[in-house]
Design brief:
binds flavin mononucleotide; alpha/beta; 8-stranded parallel sheet; 10 helices; 291 residues
Length: 291
């Protein structure tokens, strides 16, 4: 069942999607049981930025049919806070640690990649490029040239695997994936959330404090499957697939569509034990197929 991914050997292909499983809070609640039975084959931490962020004003969530719209706004302690407080705790997890970083310019991302990449506790970095470059005004991950320029800046700064997390809000996602692969990305991951909005039922004004948000959960699974399939056909590097995964059967579908690893996101809010359930369902399905 072990899976080779960017030089790492993982016990199975199921990991968490960034920002949807707080391992530090879970450890506080479940203690060493979480360590003994860690549900994911690698742990991806929530996006960190260079400076601390408070995140968006509430409300931050809206439940939509078969999904969720979130406008969390990436609250985090910032790079220094992460390195001082979160990293030592996350380094105790029994699986490889993937750190997700985001910057508002290439220089900011470069600083994050250099600092995080230098830490021995970190197995790989995931670059969240679903954010505008304040200098160019472009959402970095929506344009192949932006992604290529970003990779040219950050690739020389670390020898650790770099996973580029693609946004589904782009006109040609495979072209963006090819730009990442062609400029030294070790893997791509997709999908991040789809842009969405909810209105207050009485006032007709935006429900979410941030105005609009990102749609995730079962509602986006068919979109994710199509984009994963198109990207896997377009690049030779591994693909981490995510978007609405709820069962071991969905993991099998995402792998069949071309993913090497599959991440569980929103389902962990509905069922906090989803990681363990989905990975054991998948292992069971695989064992049945072999027998
Ligand atoms: C509440 C919430 C917070 C998220 N935070 C992050 C984040 O910090 N960084 C990131 O790259 N993606 C973040 N995501 C996106 C997920 O990692 C994932 O790409 C997306 O939700 C699709 O998977 P899912 O449908 O299984 O949730 C977040 C998603 C949700 C629902």
């Amino acid at each position: 069942m072990t899976v080779a991914f960017c030089g790492l050997e993982l016990e199975h292909p199921v990991i968490n999607a960034s920002g949807t499983f707080d391992a530090i809070a879970a450890r506080r609640v479940f203690g060493d049981e979480l360590i003994a039975r860690f549900p994911f084959a690698a742990f991806v931490s929530k996006t960190i930025t260079l400076a601390p962020r408070r995140g968006n004003p509430p409300p931050r969530l809206w439940e939509t049919p078969a999904g969720l719209i979130n406008s969390i706004g990436l609250p985090n302690r910032g790079l220094d806070g992460y390195l001082a407080h979160d990293l030592p705790e996350l380094a105790r997890l029994p699986v490889p640690l993937i750190v997700n970083v985001m910057g508002f310019s290439r220089d900011e991302l470069a600083e994050l990649v250099q600092a995080v990449g230098a830490r021995s506790e970190v197995a790989a970095l995931e670059l969240n490029v679903s954010c505008p470059n304040v200098k160019t005004g472009m959402v970095m991950g929506s344009d192949p040239r932006e992604v290529a320029a970003l990779m040219a800046r950050v690739r020389p700064l670390t020898s650790k695997p770099l996973i580029v997390k693609l946004t589904p809000n782009a006109s040609d996602v495979p072209a963006v994936a090819q730009a990442a692969a062609g400029t030294g990305a070790d893997a791509v991951s997709l999908i991040n959330t789809l842009r969405g909005m909810a209105l207050h039922p009485q006032t007709g004004r935006p429900w979410l404090g941030g105005g609009s948000g990102g749609v995730s959960g079962p509602a986006v699974r068919a979109v994710a499957l199509a984009q994963i399939n198109a990207v896997a056909d377009a690049v030779a590097i591994p693909v981490v697939g995510m978007g609405g995964v709820q069962t071991g059967g969905h993991v099998r579908e995402f792998l069949a569509a071309g993913a090497t690893l599959v991440a569980v996101g929103t389902e962990s809010f509905r069922d906090p034990a989803a990681g363990e359930r989905i990975s054991s369902e998948f292992v069971g399905l695989t064992a049945t197929a072999v027998a």
